Amino acid sequence: MRSRKRRIWGLPRRGAVAMLAVVPFLLAGVAACGGGGAGADGEVAITFVWWGSDGRANLTKQAVDLFQQRNPKIKVQTSFSAYAAYWEKLATQTAGGNAPDVLNMDGRYLAEYGGRNVLADLNQGPGKSISLTDVNPELAATGVYQGKRYAVPWAQNTPAMIYDPAAFTAAGADPANGMTWDQFADATQKVSAASGFSVRGATDFGILDTALEIWLRQQGKQLYTPAGKLGFTADDLRRYWRLAGRFRDAKGVSPADVTSSYNTSPEQSPLGKKLTSSEFAYDNLLPAYKTASGKALSVAPYPGDASGNNGQYRRPAMFLSISARSKAQEAAAKLVDFLINDPDAGRILGTDRGLAPNLKVRAQLAQGATGNDKTLYGYESALEPKLGAAPPVPPKGAGSIQKLLQRTYEEVAFGRMSVDDAVSRFMSEAEKALT
């Protein structure tokens, strides 16, 4: 019963309360409804869900419409939600035996859903028809957990610093050429000072598990071990938060009240609200940040060490999975294969989720890319020789770690807790969350 008090399916308590009554049905293995089998006329209906904005939904629906034109016997019912709402709804649907046939999957939850046999093994049955021939093997391997392929990458992105070139150029810095952490600290302090400290040089990165992961990789460590435990020590986290504290003390990063309002949506982020001049995010979010801020932003690698090690890797921006209990897995597999391999689908989807996973499709799209797309293709192409292998699939419970990191670090930023006490609290609660 302890896991019920703490979290359910990696969701925070408030997101889990609504599904307490239906979880026993999931554990008992209630058959899912999903889409229907073939009708008398040979038609098959499947359901497909994802998270994202209205703009993303419009692009995805266009791609689905094209799929249906080419496969008139397959009818696809679609729906989408904002990220947090998506996971609450999906957990409830799955627990109630009504999992969608094709579902958008995040690496943070892959072990959670795959480990509970909710997702089909795509190395078996109809899933074998999904071609990964033209997908980078390291990227393709990110959908494998405990020897089973529970997902295929829908797009590739990589962590990046999204920044205002004008602000950093005025401070005598050029992030595009790469910087050390010392150089970044100096630049952010100068950017902040230029505005009278009303616009800080960067959003405080102490709250981000994504930034922590990259910093750890630069130290030769990782966020999680292959065995599903924390891949770093209390001393590692202490050094990371002290690094963030150095930026904070120099007023190079956002003050505590701004940091605590951080939201992963570019529109609600400090950079998007023009309260900072740079922020660590994923490169494919550049267009959304530009729209939110109204500024000519660009992307640059993470600061690194003097040797140029930036710790970055080919990241599956998100995955596509198929319900293990879908009654229409063959149709579902056709849709998944189309979305990751079809050139016309790739052209419609663009770089909204990241670069096309199919390398041949990506190369075709890169040739005619303009604007933001050209920037993103150029950025990842330049980084390609420096990209390392992707980390292991995050363990069950990883979905709650980012919230824990943010919540604990905020106590430090507001001065309500020492770094040492915050580290002790985080390590204790994180280890419990991962058991």
Structure explained in plain terms:
By secondary structure, the chain is of the alpha+beta class. Helices cover 43% and strands 12% of the residues. The protein has 19 helices and ten strands. Strands 2-1-3-10-6 form a five-stranded mixed sheet. Strand 1, helix 4 and strand 2 form a beta-alpha-beta unit. Helix 4 (54-70) runs antiparallel to helix 15 and helix 18 runs antiparallel to helix 19 (419-433). The protein is globular, with a radius of gyration of 22 Å. It starts with a helix and ends with a helix. Mean pLDDT is 89; it is low at 1-33.
In short:
The protein is of the alpha+beta class.
Task: Please write out the topology.
Layout: H1 2-6, H2 13-16, H3 23-27, E1 44-51, H4 54-70, E2 74-81, H5 83-95, E3 102-105, H6 107-115, H7 137-140, E4 144-145, E5 148-149, E6 152-157, E7 159-163, H8 165-170, H9 181-194, H10 209-218, H11 234-249, H12 256-259, E8 278-282, H13 286-293, E9 298-300, E10 315-322, H14 329-341, H15 343-349, H16 359-367, H17 371-383, H18 401-413, H19 419-433
Parallel strand pairs: 1-2, 1-3
Antiparallel strand pairs: 3-10, 4-5, 6-10, 7-8, 7-9
Helix pairs in contact: 4-15, 11-19, 18-19
